[in-house]
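fold-stage: in
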Amino acid sequence: MTSKPQLLAWLTCDAVHVDPSSGKHTILGIFSNIQARHFPVMHPFMIWFLTITDCAPGPHKLRISMGLGDATPLPLLERPFESQSPLHRINLINEIRNLTFPEAGEYALLIEIDDEPLLATDLTVTT
């Protein structure tokens, strides 16, 4: 029996630096909401950083979807990744460029691994 992947960290931030000699990750500019003066607004660049564990060995697919309010979230990002062992912690750095928000509100985010929900959260966009 295989276990379901577990989410250890989910962050929205400005940048992630990976030290080439140690492999350590430095997270820069963590934020949880976006403020805008007018709409639609386009956010030029952000990172969605997540750490997962308990992934069965082999290939997997990460999908992140987003929707406003009760609307069905639409896929924004899909990417493959590889797991060597369920004991490994896998850091996934996802660059999000030019993300447009048509209006203020609570934007629902759905994070899935292999089509199974891992996290449902939101990103608040205000004036």
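fold-stage: in (second)
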Amino acid sequence: MFDHFVSPLPAFETDGRHSISGLSSGAFMTVQLHVAHSASFIGAGVIAGGPYRASENYRAAATTPTSNILNALYVAMSPLTEGTAPDVDHLLALARDTAHIDPLDNLADQRAYVFTGTCDRVVNQLAVRKTREFYEKLGITGDRLMFVDDVPAGHSIITMNPEDSPLSSNQPPYINEGDFIQSHQILDHLYPGANPPAEDAFGAFIRFEQAEFIGFAQDRASMAEFGYAYIPSRVASGNSKAIGVHIVLHGCKQGYAYVDFVNGREDIQNQPPYGARYMRSTGYMEWAEANDLILLFPQADGGDSNAAQNPDGCWDWWGYSAKDQNSPDYYSQNAIQIKAIHAMLTRLSGQ
């Protein structure tokens, strides 16, 4: 159930150990945000996501909107061969030439978790392996890089909930039952030596308006009216300082406000009842409760308009939110969604 009250996003003192993770479009956005604001993070978790600026795998894509979309579908997500997967050296060159991002050297001492299921039919393993290569070439190596590619999982985040889809499924809501809780695996890797997850989450689940952080780009942002945050009980009561903020980015069709679009219209009658499952049932809150980690759950929204064609409620990793579609900026600190999410992080962490 959702909380009915809307609160301003609060500020807390933290140790500054912030991180981010996501699935699918949320994983692609995780990499973009991690690279753009590398000075703000200690690490990232990527479930079925490609490397930075993956939809610009060919140079023409930087100036041709159609190429961005085709590259997103057929190169960044579903390459047929190793040779047609994202070109890491090209994407690293793009990153080095990108204005308005933090120095790439910040990433060398960080930690990263990269996962691709053997049964994933949405984002090919060939593409995700390029994410591992991308991080390795930026200096994240050895035990600081956890790469998993041998689990027979479909396109999903993995839980141990019997009510979730079978492990090999590739279907909404993209939450599958396995023999481990993936959010715990991610956070254990990003925060070595952490406490075991709590039995339950007793903290505050906050709903806030995202418009404050989006500014004048509401029509193009494709972000929902509300975002959410979880404040662990000891942090909420003032008895403990948070170790940091972890940003959790859902995938396509997983936001609380997701409604499918049919022929350009919201299909209200057949709206899937996913609600807050990605936030509440994937294990993030129990881990955060035990380790005084604040969680931020930004929310993307579906839409099928001239301003933003995003019917599946995906995060923007190919340029749909850009004002200038001939040279879209979806990857720098000035990109609409990146700017909004980082502003939320800044508020929550009391900066």
